């Protein structure tokens, strides 16, 4: 019988470098209060955001992804030719054809790379990281550039106070490569299709969310999934140095941290709070928060980080990683 050769597998994978990108324009809560019925105190108290970045016409899903991706490759000490696959996670990419990944690969100089887009909304980066890691482990890629890039201002009604105060624009990226010691744990992922209608685009142009039901779901269902990701990696809550949940709402982030501490996570566990200055940037939020915390000296190489993304679908995905 004909016997096919299989790609050579590798023992483990890890994140080799991180990068992020944000538009120049800072938008404060007071700026928003000039165009809608809201105020700085309400936004800080209910969502935890002080300011965010909005892109201009030149800032696109592709341009921000190129910037973040290039920085991640440089941070990994690699050159573009060392990367052979690009994954762009986005729910705001403006064209299905051509896909963003092919454009990003070409602009970064990752010539001839495999490339595809994926959409798992705010869980997109963790889905991409799982896919990229498994591709390296299975031998179908050597190094994968995983990018979450979003221009949410394209799909937000600029005067709708229930969404315009929350969402913002950015990209975050990670290079995944082979490693003798595993540095990316198995993914815990899934969907809650019974809540499919809780984040939608009913008029085809603007995002709508049932804030309270999503809030309830995120504060009750996400911590157990994070615990599942820890169990899959063979770790205990007390092993976690850094918790990086999707930056949807600071109160959700704090609720997840509280639940994990009830299960043994340490009081000194660092908890990402990038939402305060970046807003909710969907699939960009987790890699960007990690990159910002690394730059600020809040996380260090070798730290155990627990990532957990969640959003429209409702979709979720989480895994443990060792910080580069
Ligand atoms: N400024 C001032 N007041 C506002 C406001 C704003 N931007 N938005 C709503 N309000 C008002 C409401 O009209 C309401 O007034 P009322 O009591 O007189 O009717 C009151 O504030 C409370 O509104 P509510 O919608 O219950 O607020 P909330 O505490 O649930 O906060 C969200 C709203 C959207 C911030 C919150 O529900 C949330 O973060 N949900 C999860 C979103 C999420 O994670 N999405 C995932 C996407 S990735």
How would you portray this structure in words?
This protein has 324 residues and is an alpha/beta fold. Helices cover 31% and strands 23% of the residues. The protein has helices spanning 29-33, 40-46, 61-75, 100-108, 124-138, 211-232, 250-262, 275-278, 285-295, and strands spanning 12-21, 26-28, 51-53, 85-89, 114-118, 144-151, 169-179, 188-191, 199-200, 208-209, 242-245, 270-271, 304-311, 315-322. It has a 5-stranded mixed β-sheet with strand order 1-7-6-4-5, sandwiched between helices. It has a 5-stranded mixed β-sheet with strand order 8-14-13-11-12, with helices on both faces. Helix 3 packs across helix 4. The radius of gyration is 19 Å and the shape is globular. The termini are far apart. The mean pLDDT is 97. It binds coenzyme A. Residues 38, 42, 46-47, 122, 161-162, 165, 199, 209, 211-212, 214-215, 218, 248-249, 252, 280, 311 line the site of coenzyme A (COA).
Which short descriptors sum up this protein?
Peroxisomal Thiolase, Chain A, domain 1; five-stranded mixed beta sheet; 9 helices
Give a quick summary of the entry:
By secondary structure, this protein is of the alpha/beta class.
In oligomeric terms, what are we looking at? single chain
Low-pLDDT runs: none
Average pLDDT value? Answer: 97
State the secondary-structure class. alpha/beta
- The helix fraction, in percent, is 25-40%
Number of helices: 9
CATH class call of the largest domain: Alpha Beta
With strands numbered from the N-terminus, the spatial order across the biggest sheet is: 1-7-6-4-5
Q: Give the name of the CATH superfamily of the largest domain.
A: Thiolase/Chalcone synthase
Tell me the total number of β-strands. Answer: 14
Quote the beta fraction: 15-25%
Q: Would you tell me which CATH topology of the largest domain applies?
A: Peroxisomal Thiolase, Chain A, domain 1
Give the ordered list of helices and strands.
Answer: EEHHEHEHEHEEEEEHEHEHHEE
What compounds sit in this structure? coenzyme A
Characterize the biggest β-sheet: 5 strands, mixed
CA radius of gyration:
19 Å
- CATH architecture grouping of the largest domain: 3-Layer(aba) Sandwich
Q: Span between N and C termini?
A: 45 Å
